[in-house]
Here is the input.
Amino acid sequence: MRAAIYIRVSTEEQAKHGYSLAEQRGSCYRRAISLGATAISEFADEGVSGATLDRPGLNALREAVRSGRVDVIIVRDPDRLSRRLAHQLLLTEEFERAGARLDFLDFTWQDTPEGRMFYAIRGAIAEFEKEKIRERMIRGKLQKAREGGIPVGLYNYGYTYEPQTGRVSVREEEAWVVERIFQWFVHEDIGVNGVARRLNDMGVPTRKRRGLWHRMVVRQILTNPVYIGRWRYKGIDISVPPIVDNTLWEKAQEKLKEARRLWAGRGRHDYLLSGLLTCGDCGNSMTGVYSQWWGVAERRYSCRRKNRGTQITGCRPGKMLLAEPLEQAVWQQVCSWLKDPDKLARAALESSPGVEEIHAELEHLEKHLKEIERGRAAVLDALASGLLDLDAYTRDKLAQLKRRRERLEERRAELTAGLEGGTAGHQGLSHLRAVAVEVLHKLDELDFGTKKSLVRALVARIIVSGRAGSGGHDLSGVEITVVSRIPCVETGESGDP
Ligand SMILES: [Zn+2]
Here is the structure.
């Protein structure tokens, strides 16, 4: 750190108080050393009034600071620099702008009226400057925004922004990805996580080129109205070219809301019907509870609410249904639908992607499958030639590549099945039929996760009316209405497992 010390005494001070340069010099040097200075230069004005700025020593100091040769300026008190507040402020500003810091020895000066005034005014000026700059920037940006140009960059994924012209255009390869994100999320029940995982499996690069897609990024894309062409800047809507249509975007919002609802209903244990059950008597949704009955803890669904306001506390006493028989009843219904896939499939038509889109996605898939194969081959080669050990890391790497390949192949099978229907209108049909056929022969061995996603795919809502006896075990007095997601299928059926 390079320090400069500035010392000054006026003729008057010398005569009146016997002040000398030597006394100032000593304390300033000590201060410089205690601050860790590696070089100290001295600037002095002897017998010069502090009323003028034109002093040889001060001029030399200002020159040294301007040329960047000083990091810290040590002065006994601001009076040494100037006796006038305006000059003090001017010099302070000049030094700080040049990157040098002022250090006053005499700290008590800060507590004098002059000192307080100095800092108050300096603070006010700094605040004023900041505000002025901020306002100027915002005004400039708003002006540009109103003129239809885009102010500070629109750096969202899917768009290109030219700072010179403020022009925003769609970046084709990214826009394709954005559209896939929306399509997958809306039409397939893979969730935000599933979308992120598929993007990673496909090796789709992120904006930063490095790193993986994170569910938060996918969520941000799904919720951003910029993709229907509405970019909000400081409360102003600016039109940009849209990437997805309004209907698709709205569907995504609905599904996100639904996902949040489902998430909210999740308990400590797995509940097949959480988020789908409504009590037909009080209108509350029924959530999973793990409760005791005669000393035995079991999974149940209940419409009772705690601390949620008096109006929606639910049935009194709260309705309690044993989870197992209820879930079985609904599952039977879902199975019967799966056995008649055509009925189901017809309704799924509107949510199927177009032929061109499937082809484009297949192309991507093939490319990335090849890359994975190359990666695997490279690892295996390295192993064979002894360049790599078959340690935990390598094994993990190989397993990872294998998993990615399997997921991509699954997806490819799905897409190809979708294409077999021929025309775009039949893709959904054959796709769904394929899923149903695949699932039908192993309905009893499906794991909980698969069952849950099947239930969710086919069931919109389940309404339960009436009360169960024996702590929820006896469902004979209960009517279960399963509302299908598919309009053309009969809704409602009394469940009897
Ligand atoms: Zn109820």
Q: What stands out?
A: The first strand starts at residue 2 and ends at 9. Confidence is low (pLDDT under 50) at residues 263-267, 347-352, 421-428, 486-497. Residues 277-484 form one domain.
